[in-house]
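Same chain as my last thread, 327 residues:
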Amino acid sequence: MSIYSNICFYGGGAWGQALAITLSTLNHNSTILVSDKTRETQINNSKSERFPNLKLSPLIQATTNKEKAIKGSDLIFITTESKRVLMAIEEISSFSKNKINVIITSKGFATKKGETFNKIVENRFHNISLSILTGPTFADEIAKNKPAAAIVANKEIDVATSICELFHNSNLRLYPSNDPSGASIAGAIKNIIAIGAGIVEGLELGDNAKAALITRGISETCELIKKSGGDHATAFGLAGIGDMSLTCSGPHSRNMAYGIDIIKNNYQRPTRLVEGLNALDAAISLSKELNVELPIVDAIYKIINKKSDIKDIIKNLLARPIKNEFS
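reply #2:
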């Protein structure tokens, strides 16, 4: 039996609803905190704008009352886009008198300097125990009860394990980790590499190029995690190579679709959320601070910001000095 009885999802989008659907299959009640009355009414009538072909369980209820939802919860998932996460953390902290477990599902950096959410919480929000839920998962497949695996990372491994136990025997298999910093960095970088995979696809550079991009992207992720004080092994698990493989697999990924659009539609700004685009400046800033070379991330940055011709950027990547693959 789970130690959590009052579960809240801060954010009524696809991820919040998908995870609430999963928990409902295990007979767990959950409250989804939404920003407008229309969505509140829809969810409370078992309807979902995000998943119109699914009927929501009556165990899933929605509210627009932030204070009531937060104060009444012992576990809160923040399922908003990355740039809204800090605001959510501040609100949760202000409403919570006792220490509360919070899980972030967004994949990105907390600031343009490349700070991770767990580092900021450790320094500023002492009444929050923060976990990172990340891995190769698309929300629509989770909502349809298709099998998937991911990790929950928290410095307190017992907390991570308790959250994994909450989902035990569902379609979502979770593994505990004590490396929230590495998990956060892996999630942010894979979105950037997925944009690169879209560029490769758009330029019709072939499967060899995409495989090389993913593999070297993992190498860059590994180096950044190590220099940030995380566990480099995280890059080789579900949060790293697992998630990157999925996100680079096709245009179902928003980040990869954006990379394709860069080539096919002449650099048009995205019409929907592209987390990799938001993470680029932060990744470049962090790499400079830690003195870590990220040639692929840097190349994607130059392409998006039109620093030079794409052919020249690719040529320069291939002409980098020879070195050992793992050095």
